[in-house]
TrEMBL record:
GO terms for molecular function: transaminase activity. It comes from Nonomuraea composti. Residues 26-37 have a biased composition (Pro residues). Residues 1-39 are annotated as: Disordered. Pfam families: DegT_DnrJ_EryC1. Its cofactor is pyridoxal 5'-phosphate. Keywords: Aminotransferase, Pyridoxal phosphate, Transferase. The keyword Cell membrane does not apply. It comes from the Bacteria. Gene3D superfamilies: Aspartate Aminotransferase, domain 1, Type I PLP-dependent aspartate aminotransferase-like (Major domain). Coiled coil: none annotated. Belongs to the DegT/DnrJ/EryC1 family. This is DegT/DnrJ/EryC1/StrS family aminotransferase.
Length: 432
């Protein structure tokens, strides 16, 4: 070998050098991942029909045809298997209206798992109530029957289906129902997940969904509340439309679809016709997308079974269908001196799609600071006092040992799963 060549060879990183340290990545940077969101084929036509149709929101004059907002509500209720669905503008609004519909006394407490997006707790404050954070099941990351520790004034529990696991709602309800505590399912991350064949959202008294950009069913922003309870559904309609409900019967030309029923005071949380039209289209491909993602997830599980030091999240066997949202890869134990953040960064560099640890449990989240809003000061005082001495060992442990991948990366094929498994193996070998 010429001296120059020897120099070149020794400067080149070894094949197992991590991409984050200058090595070549497992996946060539020019091989794209599936895009998210993926518009359904009929989405442009439905959107165009709203643009041309003259009604862009349900508070506009009726056109004689069914508003998309109503059509989506009808179709999503059918999908979830509940009698009613009231569409709203955000998942947070779904939670606020659900809590308001319960008409709990001001300042009552609501149990909320520590491992969730901040909205599960901030919605409680917005409804004039105080969230009490509880720990989660160490296997699923969801609140479970063992975590139900009500206060004397607890009126509700928000059961979040986390990442791609489902909370054991029937188990929770065995404890909460006799105490008169209402279970609201926060199914923002779980459209289409099933527990013994029943859809997420239909297991609690009220189910709440988000249709924000990253969710499996999305219009960029959006949400929905579902319930079997006729009286609650009527209140939910008012709460989301400034105290107005749908007029009974068909809408008439030049009339309005909403009547001022005003049994209680609402706010404007209405979903626009653009959002509703997109959701009508996207709902048509949701189950197809679930099938692709779930087949890929199954394959990834098989591939990772050969990689020591990593596993997928455990699900309860009663969960008969997965709805992948953020897919947890569990590294427990972590290699010595290595953090989940370091693994996430190394995987991101190998694969050119984002891997990231879960956010901090809500007891130490910088996003949950109710004392910064004067209108919440009174509720914040109790919140702070209640949480001084509480700890969340299971949530903390999961956060420290988990790396998440977005479900959009599971809409491709087997090669993508092989890339993920290869990258995980490479990173773990490098960090051992
Ligand atoms: C569990 C959970 N609840 C509530 C929400 C709030 O939904 P939105 O962002 O649509 O208000 C989210 C959104 O990420 C969520 O993940």
């Amino acid at each position: 070998m010429m001296p120059d060549e020897a120099h070149l060879t020794s400067a080149r990183p070894a094949p197992d050098t991590l991409a984050i340290a200058g090595g070549s990545p497992v996946r060539p940077p020019n091989r794209p991942w599936p895009r998210w969101p993926q518009p359904a084929e009929n989405a442009p036509d439905l959107l165009a029909s709203v643009l041309a149709g003259g009604r862009w929101g349900i508070s506009g004059p009726a056109t004689g045809s069914e508003p998309y907002e109503r059509a989506f509500g009808r179709r999503f209720a059918e999908y979830v298997g509940t009698r009613h669905c009231v569409p709203v503008d955000h998942g947070s609004s779904a939670l606020v209206t659900a809590l308001e519909a319960l008409r709990l006394p001001y300042g009552s407490t609501v149990l909320v798992p520590a491992l969730t997006w901040v909205a599960s707790a901030s919605a409680v404050f917005r409804a004039g109530l105080v969230p009490i954070l509880v720990d989660v099941d160490p296997e699923t990351g969801c609140v479970g029957p063992d975590n139900v520790a009500p206060e004397a004034d607890t009126g509700a529990l928000i059961a979040v289906h986390w990442a791609c696991a489902m909370a054991d709602i029937p188990g929770i309800r065995e404890i909460t129902d006799p105490l008169g505590i209402t279970v609201i399912e926060d199914a923002a991350q779980a459209h289409g997940a099933q527990w013994l064949g029943k859809q997420a959202g239909s297991l609690g008294r009220i189910g709440c969904f988000s249709m924000q950009h990253s969710k499996v069913l999305t219009a960029g922003e959006g949400g929905a509340v579902v319930t079997d309870d006729d009286a609650l559904a009527a209140l939910l309609e008012e709460l989301r439309a400034d105290s107005r409900r749908y007029a009974g019967g068909q809408s008439t030309a030049m009339g309005l679809d909403l009547v001022e029923s005003a049994t209680l005071m609402g706010a404007n949380f209405c979903l626009s016709e653009f959002g509703a039209a997109v959701l009508c289209a996207q709902l048509g491909i949701l189950d197809e997308q679930h099938a692709i993602r779930n087949a890929n997830y199954l394959l990834l599980g098989k591939l990772l079974a050969d990689v020591p030091g990593v596993r997928l999240l455990n699900h309860r066997e009663e969960q008969t269908r997965l709805s992948l949202y953020e897919v947890p890869l569990i590294f427990d134990p972590l290699p010595d001196g290595v953090t989940a953040q370091q693994i996430a960064d190394a995987l991101t560099a190998e694969l050119h799609t984002r891997f990231y640890p879960p956010r901090a449990p809500l007891n130490r989240s910088t996003l949950l600071r109710p004392w910064t809003k004067p209108s919440l000061a009174h509720l914040a005082e109790r919140f702070v006092a209640e949480h001084r001495a509480r700890t969340y060992p299971h949530a903390e442990h999961l956060v420290a040992h988990t790396v998440l991948a977005h479900h959009g990366s599971f809409l491709g094929d087997e090669r993508d799963m092989a890339d993920i498994a290869d990258a995980v193996a490479k990173v773990l070998i490098a960090y051992q």
